[in-house]
């Protein structure tokens, strides 16, 4: 398991990377590309994921306590049983189109922020 605690990976290309169980606590991952990356059970506490591309990323059991997801692309990502993930965090993302979420998050998000589930513009 990689220990990247506090690493500056801003804008990094981590497409299809296997970061299962990695420690990315307080890492700067702004605008990083995690397309189809495996982030299962990763520690993302306090990580900066602003504008990160997490399209089709696997975030099952990842710890997202305090992670900044502002404008992050979570289209098609798997967030089942993600830990310490809040409605407030998810309300700030760019899209949740086709994302897999636990019902206790999915239902209130669809009620309060239905636009997050619409197919995003390709622009």
Question: What are the salient characteristics of this protein?
Answer:
123 residues; Pectate Lyase C-like; 2 helices; globular
Describe the structure.
- This protein has 2 helices and no strands.
- The protein has 123 residues and is low in regular secondary structure.
- It has one domain (1-114): Pectate Lyase C-like (3 Solenoid), CATH 2.160.20.80.
- It is globular and about 40 Å long.
Q: What is the CATH architecture annotation?
A: 3 Solenoid
How many angstroms separate the termini? 35 Å
Helix segment count? 2
Structural class estimated from helices and strands: little secondary structure
Low-confidence stretches: none
Give the topology string: H per helix, E per strand.
HH
Mean pLDDT: 96
- Main β-sheet, in a few words? none
Q: How many DSSP-defined strands?
A: 0
Rg, rounded, reads 13 Å
Q: Might you state the CATH topology name? A: Pectate Lyase C-like
The CATH class is identified as Mainly Beta
Backbone shape: globular
Count of discrete structural domains:
1
């Amino acid at each position: 398991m990689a220990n990247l605690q506090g690493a500056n990976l801003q804008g990094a290309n981590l497409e299809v990377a296997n970061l299962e169980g990695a420690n990315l606590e307080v890492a700067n991952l702004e605008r990083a590309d995690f397309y189809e990356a495996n982030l299962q059970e990763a520690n993302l506490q306090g990580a900066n994921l602003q504008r990160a591309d997490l399209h089709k990323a696997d975030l099952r059991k990842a710890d997202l306590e305090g992670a900044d997801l502002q404008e992050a692309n979570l289209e098609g990502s798997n967030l089942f049983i993600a830990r310490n993930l809040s409605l407030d965090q998810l309300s700030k993302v760019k899209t949740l189109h086709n994302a897999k979420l636990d019902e206790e998050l999915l239902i209130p998000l669809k009620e309060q922020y239905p636009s997050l589930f619409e197919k995003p513009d390709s622009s």
